[in-house]
Fold carbonic anhydrase.
Amino acid sequence: MSQIETIMEHNKKFVQDKEYEAYITDKFPDKKIAIVTCMDTRLVELLPKAMNLRNGDAKIIKNAGAVISQPFGSVMRSLLVAIYELQAEEVFIVGHTGCGMASLNSEHMIGEIKQRGISDDVLNTLENSGIKLRKWLRGFSNEKEGVTHTVEIVKKHPLLPPNIPVHGLLIDSTTGELEIVVNGSEENSHS
């Protein structure tokens, strides 16, 4: 059985048994926070537990490495929607130990892309249209650097209200221990 069939079978029972009732909430985050974190599978349940979050507490935006690479891309837009439309008052950038983006090798990934059937013509067309794949597919040298870089992009965004604290945390992928990399509340009080 494929995953889609397994998921749909489970979902039918989930709805019939009204298991969803335990998760009913509204669109506004109860704790008034927005989080950008990594899509790593280890964080699916660990991050909310480690941060004492329940369904409805936070807006959680996930991508590879918890990185905002485009100041006017979809992740930053999501943060701004969370702030201006959904009443988030603090932003957390949460990276994690053992992140694959810290060791991402763009040359290796381009090799994998070619092996999976994407032609050199497609790659050349992208390069010729201004998309620098080697830069776009590059990770960061260490997890703290990734968090700090993303915090800076958010803090310097021209549409971010000046009173919004932007915190940077690193979570241990095994224990869930949180380390403050950037305390946005302290930085706001010194501004």
In short: The longest strand covers residues 90-96. The beta strands are 33-38, 58-63, 90-96, 166-171, 178-182.
